[in-house]
């Protein structure tokens, strides 16, 4: 697999050089075939084509990719016209037109940006138009050079092979390059997620930054009592649907500001979406309830200002105090979440601080 990766890596980063090299070999092969067949105009043309691609290889070394890209397209198009004129459609050299379609698309996507990418569509349209014109003009016209059946079959097979090879090759490296890019992005995102301890939107702690704060308290390295509150914004989907996601983001930021003000001595985490978890160190159940009720009322009465609108929201809170039965941070958070969920099912905009059957 390492060998395959190295080969694919080389082909992706040296694709234009590989393409020019292959095109040069194609014309060397055609030069031999037409020399044996005695088609002198195409012998001379293939000599010129080989020279063009040798110059192209030198140009690639100096990073002149665009002129090489254009020269490939022009050379193949002109060659197809001339070869069809001299030896007819039955020899299949029109297949070379289709062999450059993947080349036009693959390299064009890298070379052209923005509105210039419409140039790719234009080149493909011209490519197809040339084929149609050749087909219409030369379908019934006798070729200038009548090749032997064996030579004609050889040319059909060779040009078809070049077309199929081009299609498979450029699609393969395109798919592989995209897959590698996706994997690299996923790895970078994972690393960013690992490194980051804050939520981007609210700047609250995220789970990675929050859970380590509870772990030492559960493992007994801290004797301080604490409570955990699990909070969910009521009908948050309705806010997004009614006012838009930008309004939803503003509601989250507004509630975050109120929480930081009311719970300034606590650790606050955006657990996910519209869910927020608060770690209340040094709080017994009664004191925690008082503070959270004050927070609930504050959020209920102070609307979010969004342009010329005032958006009123409420929250439902589940509260749990730590006891020895909880062995992990997730267990006590789940208990608080369960109580919050009960509140959601029984009216919302309330604080639930005990299990309800």
Q: What Rg, in angstroms, do the CA atoms define?
A: 35 Å
Order of helices and strands: HHHHHHHHHEHHEEHEEEHE
Please tally the β strands and state the result: 7
Strand content: 5-15%
Strand order of the largest sheet: 2-3-1-6-7
What share of residues is helical? 55-70%
- Mean pLDDT across every amino acid position: 91
Number of helices: 13
Judging from the principal axes of the Cα atoms, what is the shape? Answer: elongated
Termini separation (Å)? 58 Å
Regions with little confidence, pLDDT below 50 for 5+ residues: none
Largest sheet: 5 strands, mixed
Structural class of the helices, strands and pairings? alpha+beta
Q: What is the topological layout?
A:
Blueprint: H1 2-13, H2 15-37, H3 40-61, H4 65-87, H5 95-99, H6 101-111, H7 118-138, H8 149-195, H9 207-218, E1 226-233, H10 236-243, H11 245-262, E2 267-272, E3 275-281, H12 285-301, E4 304-306, E5 309-311, E6 315-321, H13 329-345, E7 351-352
Parallel strand pairs: 6-7
Antiparallel strand pairs: 1-3, 1-6, 2-3, 4-5
Can you walk through the features of this model?
- By secondary structure, the protein is of the alpha+beta class.
- Helix content is 66%, strand content 10%.
- The protein has 13 helices and 7 strands.
- It has helices at 2-13, 15-37, 40-61, 65-87, 95-99, 101-111, 118-138, 149-195, 207-218, 236-243, 245-262, 285-301, 329-345, and strands at 226-233, 267-272, 275-281, 304-306, 309-311, 315-321, 351-352.
- The strands form 2 sheets. A 5-stranded mixed beta sheet has the order 2-3-1-6-7.
- Helix 1 crosses helix 8, helix 4 (65-87) runs antiparallel to helix 6 (101-111) and helix 6 runs antiparallel to helix 7.
- The radius of gyration is 35 Å and the shape is elongated.
- It starts with a helix and ends in a 5-residue tail after the last strand.
